[in-house]
Amino acid sequence: MDLKKHEIKANDELKLNKKLVQKLKKKKPKDLDAIVHQLHDEAFEEIDCLDCANCCKSISPIVRDKDIQRIAKYLRVKPSVFVQEYLNLDHENDYVFKNQPCPFLGADNYCSIYEVRPKACAEYPHTDRRKFQQILPLSLKNTIICPAVLFVFDGLKEHYK
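Predicted structure:
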């Protein structure tokens, strides 16, 4: 996957996607979740996360206490050691990884802690969740990071002309 091309396309479409978000927030279509879920499925028929891993390379998930406990156990270290070695508190007092790319991302784009990865990683890019309306601003930002989210937005623009 050519991430540079994706970034250029996403930035070129950002203005249109902002307008779409405003329109959807105002209109609140009842079929939004169903359309997004269908587009999500179509996106992942075409896009393989292992060809990209841009989320793992460029943004950090929020790492909750449950995540810390689970990952520390998997790594066979105390939670405090895991926190000290891998995490920082961000400006909202959430734990995030100190560095990007993610310290658990391999050169082959595989996650070495996939079975116990943070919940935020498991749910990303959030295009299969209910009440998509609530995360439109976040999803707009994610169009720059994730080709699947941009695919969903392209489909939404087509559907809600």
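Summary: Residues 3-27 form the longest helix (25 residues).
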